[in-house]
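Dear Dr. K.,

Following up on our conversation at the group meeting, I've run the structure prediction for UDP-N-acetylglucosamine 1-carboxyvinyltransferase from Cryobacterium ruanii. I'm pasting the input sequence below exactly as I used it, so you can double-check it against your construct before we proceed with anything downstream. Let me know if the numbering doesn't match what you have in your notebook.
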Amino acid sequence: MNAARLNDDANERGSAQNHGASVGLTADKITIRGGIPLIGRIEVKGAKNLVTKAMVAALLGETPSVLKDVPNISDVRIVRGLLEVHGVKVTEGAKPGDLILDPVDVESAHFAAIDAHAGSSRIPILFCGPLLHRLGEAFIPDLGGCRIGDRPIDFHLEVLRKFGAVVEKQPNGIRMSAPNGLKGAKLELPYPSVGATEQVLLTAVRADGITELKGAAIEPEIMDLINILQKMGAIITVDTDRVIRIEGVERLLGYNHRALFDRNEAASWAAAALATDGDIFVGGARQAEMITFLNVFRKVGGAFDICDDGIRFYHPGGDLKPVIIETDVHPGFMTDWQQPLVIALTKAHGTSIVHETVYEQRFGFVDALVEMGATIQIHKECLGGHPCRFGQRNFNHSAVITGPTKLHGADIVVPDLRGGFSHLIAALSAEGTSTVSNVGIISRGYENFIGKLRLLGADFDLEG
Ligand code: EPZ
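The predicted structure tokens came back this morning:
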């Protein structure tokens, strides 16, 4: 491992602690005594991957917005900081989880202030459209986010240029301006990128004229962002075949919205229930946005009950069964679900395959599982049936998991958000004691996960 990587890791650990500290998690290490089924009820709040974009959308309104069910996670803290350096007043609403976002005094921010807040998030790129509309300029620092692939922003820059933005690469980021304003455009994405689709939505709603976007992402979080923008006064049509049409309007007002629940967090706790032979009721989870996950959960041998106020996920007993999973864009099996579910697949009787087609480097978390006794091989080929963008390109993007294997305790370091939750599940389902460090990263996307582990009867200690 080279010096730069070590530095990166040191920085990553530093920022992991910052992530944790920003939401009250002072510990960076957790010692888990595994083998105890997780049993009980937890609640999930608004989706990290919607709430952060909804906060950015508030910039487009001429009056304050109210966002409900906002989770206390560090990614929300980062976006809040970025909005505040741009003059947006962010205050807590009447109820816990309500945020009031007042964009009336939006102003330019110094790049150093933006840089300081950007930290390890990808969200700053989505500030472009709203800031270009409000201020005629925008500055985007170098982006962060989980190291699960190269994660370029070429689609984002391409669509912004097509709207008429002038994009200047600078040593510490990207500066943008719109000398002639922003005009509607005919656009097509080479791949249904969630971020690039959000970029188009947040820019086109106030652009002059009509925008047609082909090859759009249609994830539930995209649909909920469209709900919000329509509440603000936007005109957006979603056709079949991933075509979205937006008629630009001159003015938008603030919204009042309850965020869509976090289906990634719900799927993660479901995977934890299955791997620990447990029984977890996830309050706030809904069937409609999890249909594909529920199918696979059932095929592996898990059981679930759909209720009005949530979904109960449990291990009904019996052997778990192997499956073939190919991650894909919605309505396919979501890439953020594979890492947590892999632990249950190590206990399945037979050979499972996970073909990761959305990110080219999302198996970094596997090394630690092999150290704990799992039998997992990583391959460069497209295993699973359908060739993907990463085939024949030297990326380790398929995993072959042979079970059943018994995991045993080990000392492991969290590599990224979903990989981190997967490591928690591994330690909880393993025989013996594990130490999981760098856990601060997990608080980027999982509200109060320590409190929820306590509620579910996990046996652990926190270390500072
Ligand atoms: C969002 O990331 C989510 N993050 C991700 O969740 C999620 O995995 C992903 O969508 C896919 O559903 C947030 O919403 C903050 P993409 P995003 O643009 O928007 C390539 C989590 O754990 N691409 O759909 O960054 C890209 O490299 C996170 O919660 C380009 O090539 O994802 C990737 O291979 C992880 N050029 C693919 O498209 C571009 O300009 C999908 O990326 C943009 C993307």
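Two things stood out to me. Residues 3-44+261-463 form a domain with the UDP-n-acetylglucosamine1-carboxyvinyl-transferase; Chain fold (CATH 3.65.10.10). The mean pLDDT is 93.

Best regards,
J.T.
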